[in-house]
Design brief:
This protein is mainly alpha-helical and 216 residues long. The protein is built from 9 helices and no strands.
């Protein structure tokens, strides 16, 4: 029952984030403007994936496409949020990971879960989040971290990609596991996602009370 509830809770959580992002659009500037589009794209693809799942159709092509677009948009966000030389590291590694992901569609198949792509993406985004935390620690103006929208968003992304890494790496094995075990693994992934969305929700909400900047 809990796992099935999570299958419904994730799209609801993404919908809530989309609504909040839309009403906060004017306050989301700089790297947060890119994150706004990330939320909207995630919302559309999550809705499509959820619809396919409800009708018992294969939604893995949508999930794989979401991974590629997620990688592109988050790479763009961190390119804007970071400074040289970290900015160039993000651009090069993000671009390389995207090319790998496109090639991997032909290797693992478009309608099979591209676990290699998701594992590579998780490692790279995790590194990007560490770069951003390093930037926060080096800011001359030591504002309380809880007042910085990107602190919460970055924390949510770190939680999701770090904690979920082993699940994505096991993606190929999931297909060969008993159905109950597979559902448990995907349930854990969704539970982590909902927890991360809570941090992202706070981050977007903070844009409504905090003046955005390149370090926000």
């Amino acid at each position: 029952m809990l796992i099935r509830a999570l299958f419904h809770l994730v799209p609801v959580s993404v919908f809530v984030l989309c609504v909040l992002a839309v009403v906060s659009r004017r306050q989301m500037r700089g790297e947060l403007a890119v994150f706004f589009w990330y939320i909207l794209v995630s919302g559309v693809l999550t809705a499509l994936s959820y619809g396919l799942w409800l009708t018992q159709q294969n939604n893995l092509l949508v999930i794989n496409l979401n991974s590629l677009l997620e990688l592109v948009l988050l790479t763009c966000m961190y390119v804007m949020a970071l400074e040289k030389p970290a900015r160039w590291v993000v651009l090069v590694t993000g671009s390389a990971a995207f090319i790998f992901g496109v090639l991997n569609l032909g290797i693992q198949g478009m309608e099979q879960f591209n676990s290699h792509t998701k594992a590579v993406e998780s490692v790279i985004i995790f590194i990007f989040t560490v770069f951003y935390f390093r930037k926060l620690l080096m800011l001359p103006d030591k504002k309380p971290l809880r007042t910085i929208p990107m602190f919460w968003i970055n924390s949510g992304l770190l939680i999701y990609f770090a904690a979920g890494l082993f699940l994505f790496a096991l993606g190929n094995s999931v297909i060969n596991l008993p159905n109950a075990v597979s559902r448990f693994i995907w349930g854990m992934d969704m539970l982590i996602a909902v927890f991360a969305y809570a941090f992202i929700f706070i981050g977007i909400w903070k844009t409504r009370t905090t003046r955005p900047s390149t370090s926000s």
